[in-house]
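User: Structure with 3,4-dihydroxyphenylalanine, tokens only please.
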Amino acid sequence: MIDDLKEKFLNELESVISPADLFQLRVNYLGKKGHLTSALKALSSATPDERPLLGKKINDVKQFVEAHIASKEAAFKNEELKKQLLAGAIDITLPGKYAAFGKEHPINQVLFEITDIFVKMGFSVEEGPEVETDYYNFEALNFPKDHPARDMQDTFFVSDDIVLRTHTSPVQVRGMEKRKPPVRFIAPGKVYRCDADITHTPMFHQVEGLMVDKDITFSNLKGILEAFLHQMFGPDTRVRFRPSFFPFTEPSAEVDIGCILCGGSGCRVCKNSGWLEILGAGMVNPAVFKNVGYDTEIYTGFAFGMGIERIAMLKYAIDDIRLFYENDIRFLRQF
Ligand code: DAH
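Assistant:
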């Protein structure tokens, strides 16, 4: 009977086609009431002479059954794994997906270019808050209470006393409060004005500059700004200073360069004047020095400020400022 069991098992194993079948087969042979378990129990009724041989036979069959079940089980596992791998297979002959590389925004490119030029001339870089108090944005910079720039039309008010800074000039004041002369820094950053058309966005960027020491004169201002403009726009760029007015400088100037688009012969961008207005500048008004506790008898200084978007627009001949902020990849890729 035990001799037939091997054969019977092999036959049944052949018809096993699933892990569930195999489980059932295992129960039938090795389970509590399985054929082999029963055979081992029946061993006690065998005669003492028969017992060792029969016991060995049953154990042999048991090992045989266990080994076959284990190998069938491994085969099922293998098949399952193959199925999973096949399901998740990728076609390695397909072209890969490229991750787009990011790059600096054109506004940042221009901003870093400007920063580099001034850093090489010994200026450090200063930062200030974009949400600013009326004091730093206006008062300390000598803006009279009724100055039009303080108007709701231009300034975003957070509260009566708090504004979104309308220019980077407040960083002058904060920078001077922090240190004693000599002072030489630029302050790049975002500024906000309630204005929107093809040359204005409510948020834009400026770079402020400040240099304070003994014996700083208007010639120093001219020298530094000319050196900057020649590096920025080319060594042959013509530069001119026009008298102007800012509350925080006296005297004040507006600085123009020869039109970089038409070379000075006159075009739409320079409105046929041959000149482009690039920055505002002047000698720091003693009223501002008084606000930060600098001795106006000992120290003089100059300041300047420029809009980055405007410079970027001129440099790349872009006629609509809004293009910078639409995030159209086709536009941004060109820089
Ligand atoms: N803050 C001025 C503006 O936003 C720009 C400016 C002009 C800054 C003259 C200066 C300066 O430091 O001296 O229009």
